[in-house]
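Example record for the data management plan.
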Amino acid sequence: MSTQIIGETNDILQKSISQEPRHLNPSIPEDFQEQFLEGMILAGGINHRMQNSFKGNLSMFPQSTDTFLTHTVDMLRPHVSVIYLSYGRDIYKKLPGCHILQDLYPGCGPLGGLHTGLSVCSSDWLAVAACDMPCLSWELYMFLAEAGSKTCTKHAAIIPTLEGHPHPLAALYHKKAVPVFEDCLRRHLCSVRRALEQLPVLYIKVDDQPQLIAMLKNINTPEDYAAFLITKNT
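Corresponding structural encoding:
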């Protein structure tokens, strides 16, 4: 089984990434500097609760060409060396400068995307964002990185929690999670939370961070999207 990367093989992609010039990123705490952080957007696919549409194509504003997907790419681009767009079986959007990934284990939801991205990335840490969280800002990843900077070598993931609920699709992941994720996928266990129970994870509460709470809101239904557009008009 090999990673499916549109337009190039895994070996070519890894070689091209390793040859890209690397610069210290002042946005990353010291313990993360040598990792040269890469980013991945879980773009997913058709969503039945959104009337069988691809959520990445939803507009940030009425009549705007800026979509959830392009907005998330623009959010990550200044801070990571490579951006991956993760899909399952079908590809719904290609964007300049982004590497397209298709899951090694298609049909397994976000866990399949996490496993594939971590298997391919050349950095130790990967910043992961879901494309249906349009309020995400790099500030969240800075908060997580700073919170975990002193103990990052001990953990396989740094994940925000709100009201006791983890938000694993807006988080930082280490490549050491790959063997556990692969074992779960081989056994057809596709729950991200169940997989995380087998890993050393640092959970960071954001309940006392008002500016971060809104970032964790995802858009699941037409009603969610209508409410989101109202907030953009106020």
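Summary line stored alongside the record: DSSP finds nine helices and eleven strands in the chain.
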